[in-house]
Amino acid sequence: MRVVRHPNVPESLDGWSILHRMFRFRRRRWDALDATNRTRIAAEAVEFLQPLHEDPESDAALAQLLGHKADLMVTHYARSFDALGDIQVGFDRLALSDYLEASASYVSILELGLYDATAKIHANLRERKLKPHSQEWNDAFDELLREAGEEPRSAVRLWAKIPPRRYACFYPMDKKRGEDVNWYMLPYDERAALMVEHGKIGRTFHSLVTQVISGSIGFDDWEWGVDLYADDPLVFKKLIYEMRFDEASAKYAAFGPFYTGMQFSIEALPAFLDGRERAALLQQQLR
Ligand code: 76R
């Protein structure tokens, strides 16, 4: 997408369109249903969600949430907002929707921040003495950005499926824009240096947590969505606490509501709805 590249703005690589939906589950009403209807309604939902999970063009994942904010989080990945729209309508058409009440949602696009690469691109174009925002400058910019996006590591992360780890934590966040403390008024190099520090702390948790950062400026009420996935929920507490001391978070971050819970496979949806043994949920391995 051609836009005027301002040297103060870090570029990003953009991947999946993401829709998070949180629902309250009307368990007492569900339990009042007879077994035939429960089986039929649950099977219809599985039949809708499983192909979205298996399709390379999309993904869908479920998590049982803890606490009063919601009982079920449905995460959808798609290639476009249009496709997310179709998925939203399709889900709402399921008979299961009679037993769900939307309590929150979040719209974002998976992003890889490019503080480092953007600075390098601007330096490269300055060296080549291209006139800023001329046709040649724009073309060279697009070319360098495309190269960054084609790096195998980036390409994989932009279109990776929802991490199949048992514990999930989602929260939206902002970088502060206060009168005194304003991330967006910091010089580029300072922000870049803070992000390097942020990345260093993050990487000490590399194998313990899988993070998915999605940008939501212009789409939703906060600026980023943060999804964390781990095999042990304590990892979230340790990681997020540690980051609180890092300047990028300590001084500049503001957080929205946190949603925490356990992912389970789509095949295990009937077991979740019926409130069957936890073992039945786990038996269906996430993949
Ligand atoms: O993508 C990368 O791995 C490169 C380094 C990196 C960037 C650019 C990175 C690494 N993050 C980046 C960007 Mn992050 N991240 C958060 C939070 O709770 C808090 O205090 C903040 C919420 C966590 C827990 C986290 C974890 N990160 C961002 C951005 C965009 C900012 C911008 O563009 O201004 C936000 C909002 C954000 C927030 N980050 C990592 C992690 C972890 C664990 C890593 C290392 C990943 C790994 O190596 O596996």
Describe this structure in a few short sentences.
The protein has 287 residues and is of the alpha+beta class. The protein has helices spanning 27-31, 35-54, 81-93, 115-127, 135-150, 152-158, 188-203, 234-244, 247-250, 269-273, 278-283, and strands spanning 11-25, 58-65, 72-78, 100-114, 167-175, 209-215, 224-230, 253-255, 259-264. Helix 4 (115-127) packs antiparallel against helix 5.
Describe this structure as you would to a colleague:
The protein has 287 residues and is an alpha+beta fold. The chain has helices at 27-31, 35-54, 81-93, 115-127, 135-150, 152-158, 188-203, 234-244, 247-250, 269-273, 278-283, and strands at 11-25, 58-65, 72-78, 100-114, 167-175, 209-215, 224-230, 253-255, 259-264. The protein has an 8-stranded antiparallel β-barrel, surrounded by 5 helices. Helix 4 runs antiparallel to helix 5. The mean pLDDT is 94. Ligand 76R binds next to strand 4, strand 5, helix 7, strand 6 and strand 7.
Strand-helix topology:
Blueprint: E1 11-25, H1 27-31, H2 35-54, E2 58-65, E3 72-78, H3 81-93, E4 100-114, H4 115-127, H5 135-150, H6 152-158, E5 167-175, H7 188-203, E6 209-215, E7 224-230, H8 234-244, H9 247-250, E8 253-255, E9 259-264, H10 269-273, H11 278-283
Antiparallel strand pairs: 1-3, 1-4, 2-3, 2-9, 4-6, 5-7, 5-8, 5-9, 6-7
Helix pairs in contact: 4-5
